[in-house]
Write a structure and sequence with these properties.
The protein is of the alpha/beta class. It contains nine helices and 39 strands. Bound molecules: uridine-diphosphate-N-acetylglucosamine and calcium ion.
Length: 459
């Protein structure tokens, strides 16, 4: 493997995003954009990764706090050349080639990077530019060539009408020999349309210094697409989403309608699982093998174990589901919801900070909050844990094998002993011992012929 250093430019403001969030922190498939070039550099074996930060420096640093990268702050954004220049002291081994990437180019891949560095080395270049032939070169620096020789790069704003016709553009990705880079940057001035120190000037300077200057062209232009606006962000999101789905499908997951399925990049799904349309699986969620996730379900920060079946239109956040569980349709599992193996949370059931034990069922129209339910429990339709008195939250415990009749209110703190039965419609305020029957119904009163008499009187 070729050793190289990476510098990632991420100090710019990203004005066109119209956002308070630094551009490189906007997420693509659930991951802040800045992570993508870092991950590519890491996986290609970069020996050092230096990130140039400026706008929103602290938030960018926070986002990358667990990454093995070093930071250089560019106090004033005086141009891409200046941004690299400020890294001079941070580069520990200047004999290595330096790969320059941009923080706002999320679709660039490891294999392209490897091939690029390889060709820089093979051709013994001092600087190699990654170029692309595009349909609309607007906004990009143009590659000015004489035959096969690259002469210079001209920025859009400095280009003549003739130069603007050129459709071969600068991707903003370079591989530069360390010894050459900083010597060349010393010679870069800022006499141009934007009054900036352009990194692109090192091409012309390289030629003047008699160095070998080369280029390679990328096949897939999407890879070098820079995200400058929210429109670009949506394009990047779509392309990244397709990669995520392709990876999952190749690993044995059925995605019924890839155009209408949204899965974040860090989500794992086991082989044999089936994902229906309009499903959103967001960051921090993991789905086991042979699961079924039906239409309209949104899952975030949750673990769904093997063979679980999530029926349509469920919202699941911060929950942990064991194997063979069944959820929904229309269930809401909130943070701290735990379903043990083979447990069920049926339609219109909301569960928060509560454990539903193995094989237990909460099948219809219930709210279970701050509760610990044992195994083999049946919670009847419309049962509510009254966990909140307006100030504090209290715990409900239902022991193994208990049967809670429909329409029960469990006024916490309260405990229902194992094997007990609660009669339907009860309001339980006191603990129930094991194997008891408890009910709080008032006796039913029936007045025969009551309506018949009323109707007669009315005539
Ligand atoms: C740059 C190139 C252009 C190329 C295009 C590809 C220059 C002069 N131009 O233009 O040839 O076609 O990228 O996308 O290099 N940045 C800093 N500090 C600065 C200025 C910029 O860190 O002082 C960072 C930005 O955050 C961004 C990257 O450098 O990540 C590129 O800067 P940007 O202003 O977007 O350059 P372009 O005008 O797109
Ligand atoms: Ca740009």
């Amino acid at each position: 493997m070729i050793k190289f250093t990476t510098i990632i430019l991420a100090a710019g403001k990203g004005t066109r995003m119209k956002s308070d969030l630094p551009k490189v922190l906007h997420p693509v498939c659930g991951r802040a954009m800045i992570h993508f070039p870092i991950q590519v550099a890491e996986s290609a074996g970069a020996s050092e990764i230096i990130t140039v930060i400026g706008h929103g420096a602290e938030s960018v640093k926070d986002e990358l706090s667990d990454k093995k990268v070093s930071f250089v702050t560019q106090e004033e954004q005086l141009g891409t050349g200046h941004a690299v220049m400020v890294c001079k002291d941070a580069v520990s081994d200047k004999s290595l080639p330096i790969v320059i990437l941009c923080g706002d180019v999320p679709l660039f891949t490891k294999s392209t990077l490897e091939g690029f560095v390889q060709s820089h080395m093979t051709e013994k270049n001092s600087v190699t530019v990654l170029s692309a032939e595009v349909a609309d070169p607007n906004g990009y620096g143009r590659i000015i060539k004489d035959g096969d020789e690259i002469l210079k790069i001209v920025e859009e704003k400095d280009a003549s009408t003739e130069e603007k016709q050129i459709r071969e553009i600068n991707s903003g990705i370079y591989c530069v020999s360390g010894d050459f880079l900083f010597e060349a940057l010393d010679r870069v001035g800022n006499i141009n349309a934007q009054g900036e120190y352009y990194l692109t000037d090192i091409i012309k300077i390289g030629r003047e210094m008699g160095r070998r200057v080369g280029w390679t062209t990328i096949n897939d232009n999407l890879e070098i697409m820079g995200v400058n606006s929210r429109k670009d962000l949506a394009i990047a999101e779509k392309a990244m989403a397709q990669r995520v789905l392709d990876r999952l499908m190749l690993s044995g997951v059925t995605i019924k309608d890839p155009d209408n399925t949204y899965i974040d990049i860090d989500v794992n799904i086991g082989a044999g699982s089936v994902v229906y349309p309009q499903v959103s699986l967001e960051s921090g969620c993991s789905v086991g093998k042979d699961c079924i996730i039906e239409t309209g379900t949104v899952i975030k920060d949750s673990l769904i174990s093997d063979r679980s079946h999530i029926k349509p239109y469920c919202v699941i956040t911060g929950a942990k589901l064991g194997e063979d569980t069944t959820v929904g349709p229309f269930a809401h599992l909130r943070p701290g919801a735990v379903l043990k193996n083979a447990a069920k949370a049926g339609n219109f059931v909301e569960i928060k900070k509560a454990t539903i034990g193995e094989g237990s069922k909460v099948s219809h129209l219930s709210y279970i909050g701050d509760a610990d339910i044992g195994s083999g429990v049946n919670v009847g339709a419309g049962t509510i844990t009254c966990n909140y008195d307006g100030k504090n939250k209290f715990q409900t415990v239902i022991e193994d094998g208990a049967f809670i009749g429909s329409g029960t209110n469990l006024v916490a703190p309260v405990r229902v002993g194992s094997g007990s039965i609660i009669g339907a419609g009860s309001t339980i305020t006191k603990d129930v011992p094991p194997e008891a029957l408890s009910l709080t119904r008032t006796e039913q009163k029936t007045l025969p012929d009551w309506t018949k008499k009323k109707n007669k009187e009315a005539k």
